[in-house]
Write a structure and sequence with these properties.
By secondary structure, the protein is of the alpha+beta class. It has helices at residues 7-20, 114-119, 126-129, 185-197, 204-223, 229-240, and strands at 23-34, 44-51, 55-62, 71-77, 82-86, 92-94, 135-142, 145-155, 160-168, 174-182, 243-255. Strands 6-5-4-3-2-1-11-10-9-8-7 form an eleven-stranded antiparallel beta sheet. A hairpin with a 4-residue loop joins strand 8 and strand 9 (160-168). The protein starts with 6 loop residues before the first helix and ends in a 15-residue tail after the last strand. The relative contact order is 0.21.
Length: 270
């Protein structure tokens, strides 16, 4: 392991690299492992395109366990305006693409991926540069790069979280992330316990509906966007699990290639 660079220096070099790019494109996948799901869960694919100063597209293909239907989320910006289209629903203009909560480095359908947070001028470098308490724990070969492996421990709303980031030593790019969350029953009780204690007379299915309503309102408030039924189902799966591991892998990254502005006029198609 190298003793030449500290975690802060590694993060700063990565932030500088993204800040100097004129265009960026990636294609990758997310896999979500939990103690209630299959040993090899399906891959959820995503892709990103960015052109400076503020044109971007992001698509995420979500899928519930044991469900063959793909739920597609598209978010794209024409510069001054940002739009979102959910599967077959009409496109709608949104105020902004909300960055993910602190301590989360994976790719999700509701939040701006960390790559865009690094690239976009208004929030440039906020995701990695503001991540204090990271430790360099190893150097590993991931995808096609020898990478620094950084670790951060944090406390989320319902669970402690371990985040691992793999940053290429040569290219200074984020290559993969892994987030491990151990669901804390006490925190879950504190978050949703009043729903159960106030409605003890309800059967289980009605109690689940109350949690669904609370989740929908909570996420809509955080993101200024409605919570889709498909994504709500994914979150409910997380609540039922005791341990969740989410892996994000950037399989293909293209830097500073030409992208026509017209590309950003409509959603992507994977």
């Amino acid at each position: 392991m190298t003793d030449q660079l500290s975690p802060v220096q590694i993060i700063n070099k990565a932030s500088e690299c993204y800040g100097n790019l004129q265009t960026y494109q990636d294609f990758g996948f997310v896999q979500r492992f939990d103690d209630r799901g299959p040993d090899v869960p399906p891959r959820k694919y995503f892709t990103t395109k960015f052109k400076r100063p503020n044109l971007f597209q992001f698509q995420f293909n979500d899928q519930l366990l044991n469900d063959s239907e793909i739920f597609v989320s598209n978010v794209w910006s024409k510069g001054k305006s940002t739009f979102r289209k959910m599967s077959d629903e009409p496109a709608e203009q949104i105020l902004e693409f909300i960055p993910a909560p602190n301590g989360s480095f994976g790719v999700h359908s509701e939040f701006m991926p960390p790559i865009l947070a690094l690239l976009m001028p208004s929030v440039q470098c906020q995701k990695l540069a503001n991540s204090l308490g990271m430790e360099l724990i190893n150097e590993e070969f991931v995808v096609n790069d020898m990478c620094f492996c950084l670790q951060q421990m944090s406390i989320g709303a319902v669970s402690p979280r371990e985040s691992l980031l793999w940053i290429s030593k040569e290219r200074q790019l984020l290559v993969a992330t892994e987030e491990t969350m151990v669901i804390d029953p006490a925190r879950m009780s504190a978050l949703f316990g009043n729903l159960y204690s106030d409605h003890e007379h309800l059967d289980f299915e009605l109690k689940v509906e109350l949690v669904r309503k609370a989740l929908r309102e909570m996420v809509s408030k955080m993101t200024n966007m409605p919570m889709s039924e498909k994504r709500l189902g994914t979150i409910l799966q997380s609540i039922k699990a005791r341990k969740v591991v989410e892996k994000t892998v950037y399989e293909r990254i293209v830097l500073d290639a030409h992208i026509d502005d017209d590309v950003f006029n409509e959603p992507l198609s994977l």
